[in-house]
From TrEMBL:
Source organism per UniProt: Dyella koreensis
UniProt keyword Protein transport present: no
Domain of life per record: Bacteria
InterPro entries referenced in this protein's UniProt entry, alphabetically: Peptidyl-Arg-deiminase_porph
Pfam families reported in the protein's UniProt record: PAD_porph (PF04371)
The keyword Nuclease appears for this protein: no
Keywords of the record: Hydrolase
Protein's recorded name: Agmatine deiminase family protein
Length: 345
């Protein structure tokens, strides 16, 4: 496997499985564990309609509990594999592997340093998660490459053809001493990207990630970009997201054309004990033959699902109730990591 033919697949390419970690009493979900488990059960049911699911559990007792919950909901357990490993929390988009592949069926698990989003939370066990999964034999013969540079999977979007989209707000927080040019070089080298596109604007209140791209703007097939818009001029996000929309409109494809943009509707403010929560519809998950879309119990849920489905033609659209997730400042995409077809064993 030569480095020159590695690439970062797009999420809409064929997958072997989705990877999640089950919440438990020693994670930040402890206060509302029963509520958040309803989302995990719904997510597991949705994923296993279309493909396999790998669930990381802390121990045998948690596995038995999760199995009981899933069985009671009629989830297809034959499509689920459990792996017992320790973890701090369940945001596997950020602690899970960023998988590169070549054209001959070989894979590289790219294992960046996970710092708990810039040291906000303890992350020692999460940073060791990929190595633990490798040792457990989840990824067969895939190469495992550790890179001592902080990057989370939610901080990058790939079109599968060498373009990576990211946000300056996030990466300059992780690496304040580095220039944009230096970080572009590191991203290009480690992800084998041909070009790095940066957004300077865009954020959501209640977001611990410092503006991860997967809460804001997502590549879709056919040179499309789906993004979180805000049409409420009285909302504090309005100006920033308008500026981000203008940035997206100015981006060009590798052959010089503008992207086709799909603005998503804005959910009404969701406030929990005085704290605004980050309810982004852009935080959806693509699986084989379907796209799983967050629902927040808002009147905009159905319109968001319709637009995301339009941007991903030919896929079944499945809404997953995600209101419990945003209590901990993330949503559907944040708790999952897709694995390309051929890697999971």
């Amino acid at each position: 496997m030569t480095n020159s033919i590695l690439r970062l697949p797009a999420e809409w390419e064929p997958q072997s499985a989705v990877l999640i970690a089950w919440p438990h009493a020693d994670t930040d979900w402890a206060e509302r564990l029963a509520q958040v488990e309803t989302t995990y059960v719904a997510l597991a049911g949705a994923v296993t309609r279309f493909q396999s699911l790998i669930i990381v559990v802390a121990d045998a007792a948690l596995r038995a509990h999760a199995e009981q919950q899933l069985r009671a909901a009629g989830v297809d357990l034959s499509r689920i594999r459990f792996v017992e490993l320790p973890y701090d929390d369940t945001w596997l988009r950020d602690s899970g592997p960023i998988t590169l592949k070549d054209g001959h069926g070989a894979f590289q698990l790219t294992d960046f340093r996970f710092t708990g989003w810039g040291g906000k939370f303890g992350a020692e066990q999460d940073d060791a998660l990929i190595a633990g999964l490798v040792q457990a034999g989840v990824f067969g013969q895939a190469a495992h490459k550790r890179i001592d540079w902080a990057l989370e999977g939610g901080g990058i979007e790939s079109d599968g053809e060498g373009t990576v989209l990211t946000t300056w707000r996030c990466l300059t927080q992780r690496h304040p001493e580095q220039s944009r040019e230096a970080m572009s070089d590191i991203l290009s080298d480690s992800l084998h990207a041909k070009r790095i596109l940066w957004l300077d604007y865009g954020y959501l209140e209640g977001d611990d990630t410092d503006a991860h791209i997967d809460t804001l703007a997502r590549f879709a097939p056919g040179d499309r970009i789906v993004f979180q818009a805000c049409d409420d001029a009285s909302d504090p996000h309005h100006d920033e997201l308008q500026k981000m929309a203008a940035e997206l409109a100015a981006l060009r494809t590798p052959d010089g054309r503008p992207y086709q943009l799909y603005p998503l509707p804005w959910a009404q403010p969701i406030v929990d004990e005085g704290r605004r929560l980050a309810a982004s519809y852009a935080n959806y998950l693509i699986v084989n033959g379907a796209v799983l879309v967050p629902a927040y119990g808002d009147k905009a849920d159905d319109e968001a699902a319709r637009i995301i489905g339009e941007a991903h033609p030919g896929r079944v659209v499945v809404q997953v109730p995600c209101r419990p997730l945003i209590w901990q400042n993330g949503s559907l995409h944040c708790i999952t990591m897709q694995l390309p077809a051929g890697i999971a064993h």
